[in-house]
Specification:
Helix content is about 35%, strand content about 10%. It is of the alpha+beta class. α4 packs across α6 and α5 packs across α6.
C-alpha cells in the first residue's frame, strides 16, 4: 500500500516485525496457485494459512521462500494441512463461487496495531463492500491513524483472504495496493464494486 489518507495526529506504532520466538522451529509448507491476477504463492503452518504473495513468478517466489525459511527456522515440508483448503477456496473465489473464506489463518507474521487493523478488516468488511482508511482507523479506536491504516494494509501477509483490496480513499479514489492498483481494480470488479474491465 503506497497511497493512504492524511492523518491529523500522531499515528500509533505500526507494530513489530514478526517475532522469531513466535515463528522459529515451526512446520510449514507452500504451493503456487495460478489465478486471474497472476501466480500466488501460498504458505501455511499447522495453525493455518500464513502468507499470500502476489506476482509469485520465479524470482519473487524464491525470495519469499527464503524469507519464510528464515522466519520458521527450517525448510518447508512437502505438505501441510491448510494448503489444500486455501487453494480450493481461492479457486472458488476467483470463479465467483465463494464470498467468505473459512480456511484457518495463522497471524504470526503480523502484530501490534497492524494486526488489530487487519483483524477488524477481516471480521467487519464483507465481500462486495468497501471501507475508508479513516473509517477503519475509527473502528479500532484510533481516529487519528488513517495513514497508519495504510501502512497496516501494506503489511498484510494475507492479501485477498484478508481483503485489503476493500480499503479505499475517502475522496472516491481507489487508493494504493501492495499488489498494484490494477490488481486491486480486478479484485473489486470481481466482487461487483467496480465495473468489470472491457478488455
Amino acid at each position: 500500500m503506497t497511497n493512504s489518507e492524511p492523518t491529523a495526529g500522531p499515528a500509533p506504532s505500526p507494530g513489530p516485525v514478526p517475532d522469531p520466538d513466535r515463528t522459529a522451529g515451526r512446520d510449514w509448507g507452500w504451493t503456487r496457485l495460478d489465478s486471474p491476477i497472476g501466480p500466488l504463492l501460498l504458505a501455511a503452518t499447522r495453525d493455518g494459512l500464513v502468507k499470500v504473495v502476489f506476482h509469485a513468478h520465479e524470482r519473487t517466489g524464491r525470495r519469499e521462500l527464503t524469507r519464510l525459511e528464515q522466519y520458521f527456522g527450517r525448510p518447508p515440508l512437502g505438505e501441510t494441512p491448510h494448503l489444500a483448503t486455501a487453494t480450493a477456496e481461492l479457486t472458488a473465489y476467483f470463479s465467483g463461487e465463494l464470498r467468505a473464506f473459512t480456511v484457518p489463518l495463522d497471524w504470526s507474521l503480523s502484530g501490534g496495531f497492524n494486526a488489530r487493523v487487519l483483524h477488524a478488516l477481516a471480521d467487519g468488511v464483507p465481500y462486495g463492500s468497501v471501507v475508508g482508511y479513516q473509517d477503519l482507523a475509527d473502528r479500532v479506536g484510533e481516529p487519528g491513524a488513517a495513514r497508519a491504516v495504510g501502512v497496516a494494509m501494506g503489511s498484510n501477509p494475507l492479501p485477498v483472504v484478508v481483503p485489503c483490496h476493500r480499503v479505499v480513499a475517502s475522496d472516491g479514489g481507489i487508493g494504493g495496493f501492495g499488489g498494484g492498483v490494477e490488481t486491486k481494480r480486478l479484485l473489486l470488479a470481481l466482487e461487483g464494486v467496480l465495473p468489470a474491465p472491457l478488455f
